[in-house]
Amino acid sequence: MSISIEFPDGSKKPFDDGVNVLDVAKSISTSLGKKAIAGKFNGELVDLDRPLKQDGKLAILTNQDADALVVLNDTAAFILAAVLKQTYPKMHFGEGHSTADGFFYDTDNADGQVTVNDLSTLKEKMMQLIKANGEIKRVLVSKDTLLKEFAGDPYKESLINAQAGVEVPAFQLGDFIDFGYRALLKKAGEAKVFDLLSVAGAYWQGKSSNPMLQRIYGTAFYKQADLDADLKRRSEIKERDHRTLGRELDLFFVDPKVGAGLPYWMPNGATIRRTIERYIIDREVAAGYEHVYTPVLANLDLYKQSGHWDHYRDDMFPPMDMGDGEMLELRPMNCPSHIQIYQHHLRSYRELPIRIAELGMMHRYEKSGALSGLQRVREMTLNDGHTFVRPDQIQDEFKNILKLMMSVYDDFDITDYTFRLSYRDPQNTEKYFDDDEMWNKSQAMLKGAMDDLGLDYYEAEGEAAFYGPKLDVQTKTALGNDETLSTIQLDFMMPEKFHLVYTGEDGEEHRPVMIHRGVISTMERFIAYLTEIYKGAFPTWLAPTQVDIIPVNLDLHVKYAETIQKQLLAEGIRVKIDKRNEKMGYKIREAQTQKIPYTLVVGDQEVEDATVSVRPYSADKPEKEDLNVFLDSVVAEVHNYSRTGKKNKAEAKLDK
């Protein structure tokens, strides 16, 4: 019996039933057989020993293919597990496999935790195993055999029992056996370029109710130069990581006694947040928005009517039963609340557009394993806004929102971003509001608006909200992750669901269009993003402490320092005097470590001349400056958002 294999170029060839991937590669060419590391059969990653028993499409993979690093890093995780089992006989094993940027293995060691100091020894043992260049074989093993192999290991026993069928595909290297991998390299020696990076905690299967395991991270490449570049990138990431900087600069913390994903804002972080909140409120009020406050709790029926309960309940906290039939819900979104504001009065066509905005606190049920610093939290404050417009106002309002967004980016010196039009997935429409006409109409409107504005964009299916398409402003964080800075969403569904109307010029009721928009996302995520792109060195207008004054002598120079402080405070500058009984050099170094924009040193000469010795952050040497000149310059810098002579790109791009 034969099967038909189709190759990426469209050609087909018959093979015996049960032929493995490697033999297919060799049949194409001897060189491909030597270069092959795995295959992709009907879209599934398969190892070279995998027998093929049905017709299908097959791509032979080499180390030049996109999935090659997946195979390599899975192999490195497998080899790490082999060494761990050899080194720690009593260790229990969870799961291990490749990630987007490396590999990991979860473990639970009864003999004591693995530390970062142990990684070099483990790496040496992995290299010994790799140099031996043993063959990694694909084997089919009965569940009973595997259960005996991992007897007493509750995590592996759970994984084995969850496997379908009576046999489990596994991989073997010498006496070591493990399972759960899609494809591994045939020779251990092919995984010689790797490094072990760190040790961290991770809940078993990502659930906070499960035991905390120890996760060992690593990464692997085919070329040493690629590994070196990756390690350099990771070093840069470590310097920018907002979680590390948040701790060093005393911006925020999370206390497990209170709960994961619930950050406390320390005075420094709170100052940054308050500055941004005041800024964005002022910008929105100037743009015609009316700011409101709405409750963080609402009747569950409100979210049933909006559709959030049907489409979003897995991300919502459980409802609170008040005992009298009332069910209250922590809000996951602000839009139903703003709809209530709109509905509170009769509306005329003359009033539209009506722009409602709020710094609205929301709660979302994020899994413990997904939480990360300020980027993924369970309580967040969204810079949210909703505009209610007539259909003929959509184009102009869309342009106004974009202009506001891009102007805000200018003030924060955010320049690297792209526009993504996010549509529903036409092959998976059940998770979206069921109205084909609405989707086609609103998607065409968004596309037409962007075309009219002459802005470059790309399109992405499956990224829309459940109630409508949206424009996402995408950027890369300093850590290389995709981040959505802002969104604009056209919504014809909510006005229908809530029966929103306005009285038209003809005296009849008409349905408004609702535009959802968030200029800077949540305060938490935005500050995490800024912390990383600034490396913690916030521009002067955002810095928690903008000026640090250091008197040379606490007895002789404090009075002059206090005079300077009073003048700066009168201009709204955040300033402190370092009156600690420490050496001046220590105080200066600490001011630099805290990334304070300006450090002023005042001594006898400065008092006599009415000057200051100014050391900007990261400057090698201080410079003497007239006090009034410094005061004027720092005030101007703060009022101009720490910019000098920058062109407003929003105006340039949109006012064509």
Task: Give your account of this protein's structure.
One of its GO terms (cellular component) is cytoplasm. Its EC number is 6.1.1.3. This protein is an alpha+beta fold and 656 residues long. It folds into four domains: 2-61, Beta-grasp domain (Ubiquitin-like (UB roll), Roll), CATH 3.10.20; 68-240, 2-Layer Sandwich (Threonyl-tRNA Synthetase, Chain A, domain 2), CATH 3.30.980.10; 264-533, Bira Bifunctional Protein, Domain 2 (BirA Bifunctional Protein, domain 2, 2-Layer Sandwich), CATH 3.30.930; 547-639, 3-Layer(aba) Sandwich (Rossmann fold), CATH 3.40.50. The chain is 35% helix and 27% strand. The strands form eight sheets. An eight-stranded mixed β-sheet has the order 15-19-20-27-24-23-21-22, sandwiched between helices. A five-stranded mixed β-sheet has the order 2-1-5-3-4, with helices on one face. A hairpin with a 2-residue loop joins strand 6 and strand 7 (102-108). The longest helix has 20 residues, at 68-87. The protein is globular, with a radius of gyration of 30 Å. It starts with a strand and ends with a helix. The model is unreliable at 645-653 (pLDDT under 50).
